[in-house]
Amino acid sequence: MHERIKRLRRDGFIRATVAKLDGAKLGRPLLAFVHVETTSWAVTRQPLLLRDFVDVEEIHTVTGESAMLLKIRTRDTQSLEACLSAFHLS
Predict the structure, then answer these.
(1) Which end of the chain is more exposed for a tag (fewer CB within 10 A), N or C?
(2) CATH no. of 24-87
């Protein structure tokens, strides 16, 4: 099995190995997915700057009603509201 995994990595089939973090042990048990709606790409680029915020785990571009989906992990609902206010997304 180890040799197969090495070959898959070498050949580019495995791009990354990830760690699954325990939000509660990190002191951030609340996980929220936030849809971001924008009117143009110029406005859509602004949320990309959020990747530097510690509470933002992932940013995804999506199709449909929303332009982006943010994965945010925080301490509690009050922290989430503060985070959204800081982003001007609430």
Answers:
(1) N
(2) 3.30.70.920
